[in-house]
Amino acid sequence: MNVRRDPDAVLAAWLEEGPSALPESTRRAIAVTTRTTMQRRHPLWMPRGRPLMNTYARWAVAAIAVVLAIGGAAYVLAPGGGQIGGPPNATPSPSPSAVASATSPASPIPLPKAEFVYPGTYVPAFDPGLTFTVDHEVEHNCAPNFRCRGSIDVDLPGWMGLEFGQPRIEVNIIRVDKLNDPAKPGSLMDPPADLAAWVAGTPGVTVSSQKAVKVGGLAATQLDVRTGNKDVAFGPIPGVTDIGFGLGANWTARLFVVPVDGRQVVIILHAEDGSLTELQPLVDSIVWN
Amino acid sequence: MRTRLVERAQDGDDVAFSELVDLDGDLCYAIAYRILRDPERAQDAVQQAFLLAWRELPRLRDAERFGPWLHRLLVNACYEELRRHRRWSTHIRVLPVDGPSGPDPTVSVDDRDALDRAFERLTPQHRAVFVLHHHAGLPLAEIAEIVGAPVGTVKSRLHNAIRTLRAAIVADSQVDSTEARPA
How far apart are CA A254 and CA A229, in angstroms? Predict the structure, then answer.
């Protein structure tokens, strides 16, 4: 027997099938991640280092940085290893890194326009051109039940920024076209040939280690640095008007200064909990195009 | 009330944000489930959307636009889930979930099967438009804002999605009819 049916009624009924209430476990997971995730008001790791910045703005940035530093310390020192709202993992395992391999067989694809980055080999908008590889999802102290993803903060010709996990570990790649001229406050200058030495000699920057390395086959200088209780502004970021290139107060960071075809590129690794080595494989995967 | 909650959450009030999750979580999950046809992936997408909303909330200029903005994050999270799903898994059939909105007797097993297969063939963009309009009941202009496409494109996607799904049911009916015909 053939019964005539209204396709739209069938379609509507089919569409209504399925759950409509968010499971409690997901609500709890969202609550945990909310409590353990800092809101992003600005990429505060970068002081607003423009020459035209006024005194009040500097004080505001410094004050926010101090508050964040205190908050971060409280978070790290909190009972439960910062896993607010729940006990620490019973069997903590080493955090997998954002491991990347220069020998990855993956074909490079453009860095997605969406907010997230997954394992793969990517071509960002950065100029000079490069590729980098992330070979598996980072699970850097993620909240329970939450699968970490890398976030794409910035993908511009002059600045690429990614961050992973919680607390955040991040990599920023910046092309340095101009620097603040220390001899003429408010003016900019061309970067010197030895940019690494210039950075190392900037007041407020303490270098704990310096060595010659290679990044993508090019000679580079690796600097492990620490800043004091004030932000350090180096200069502008090409194509960016409201954020400058620099280091936040009380930072530990690893910098790679790489001359690429006559242009200066600085790669900055920073981790809120000091896990600088986790992003080293990503740096090792860089190939200049 | 919602706008006030959004403003409080923008100032870092996680309790206010939890209230927003309570208010919007169910609809977000219902939308995500219907786009993804997978409860676990839908939970992941909702979680991801809310986490991103929390992080980026201070940058939302107009608190009254929280709803469309959240739905945009949700739809993007669903696209990501679909992209990952296609890359990492093969054709896994998802059975309807029993419960308050479990299988409807109006929908035969064959219909369900045909619709599931047809829906699987739709692009993520077509799925999103279809679900946002026919399940969430959102107007086309708002959907256009959410998916970041012109209203004309939304209309076109909606038309194509419905045509594909109707065709699946009709084709299924014709098979039934042929099978029921006496020899």
Answer: 18
HSE, CB side, 13 Å, CA atoms: give it for residue B43: 16
Half-sphere exposure of A234 (CA within 13 A, CB side): 28
Interface test with B, best of A3, A4, A10, A153 (most B CBs within 10 A): A10
Given this model, what pLDDT does residue A113 score?
A: 67
The ipTM is 0.82
Q: In one letter, which amino acid is A11? A: L
| Closest chain B C-alpha to A112 CA, distance in angstroms | 10
Report the pLDDT value the prediction gives residue A240, as an integer from 0 to 100.
Answer: 81
Q: Which domains does chain A have, with CATH numbers?
A: 7-82 (no CATH), 96-288 (3.40.1000)
A145 contacts in chain B (CB < 8 Å): 47
Could you say which of B48, B58, B106 has the minimum Cβ distance to residue A40?
A: B58
The whole-model pTM stands at 0.51
A242 CB neighbour count, 10 Å cutoff: 10
* Chain-chain contact of B169 with A10 (C-beta, under 8 angstroms): yes
**A39 contacts B58? CB cut-off 8 A:** yes
pLDDT above 60: residue B92: no
Q: What is the pLDDT of residue B158?
A: 92
Buried b (16+ CB within 10 A) or exposed e, A1-26: eeeebebeebbebbbbbbbbebbeeb
Of A14, A18, A31, nearest to B111 by CB-CB distance is A14
Lowest mean pLDDT among A34-43, B66-75, B87-96, B136-145: B87-96
Q: Measured between CB atoms, does A63 come within 8 Å of chain B?
A: no
Considering only the beta carbons, identify the residue of B39, B52, B173 that sits closest to A19: B39
Of A1, A23, A114, the CB nearest to B180: A1
pLDDT per position as a tens digit, A12-65: 889 988 898 999 999 998 998 888 777 765 443 444 333 333 333 333 433 444
Pairing of strands A169-176, A159-164: antiparallel
Residue type, A285: S
Quote the pLDDT of residue A119: 78
